[in-house]
Description:
Structural class: alpha+beta
Number of strands: 12
Order of helices and strands: HHEEHEEHEEEEEEHHEE
Amino acid sequence: SVRFHSLGAKGPVYARSFVRKLLGNEEFCMQIDAATDFSQGWDTLAIQQWSKTNNEYAVLSNPPLHTTEKQRKEKNGVMNTEVPRQCSIKVGSEGVPLFGNQADGKAIGLEEPLLSTAYSPSFVFSKCHLETTVPHDPFAVQLLETEKFPHYARLWTRGYDIYTPTVNIVYKDNI
Length: 175
């Protein structure tokens, strides 16, 4: 394990940069935010979704719905196929491309994961080689919004493809 004193805290991007130091021989890795809730059978579901891409370098990622939506979306064990999706990129005040915190679109009724042009660090599921091939930048301390696009660009230029899953795998409290 990696331990820090609170005085050494430098934000989530810095913390994510230590993931590769904790890896053993895991096949799949998942990155989520704090206060995340999971769909029933999420682990099997995530692997099934990843397998449907037929792509070793597939990354499942989408901005999760709020946890209050879970009961409404998953009635009687039936998964709702309306999945939040990030569709647009805006340019911030400093000229840096940015993905928004909230989904600005949705995918409905997908039969297989849909190739995407956006990425949300609130939910990322892939083979663990991603963590060693495209590690998070330990020098991007306290960057939240401005780190998303550069990390996405590094994923893409190293051959990884981002996909929106066909169902909601995780839900998140907006704290």
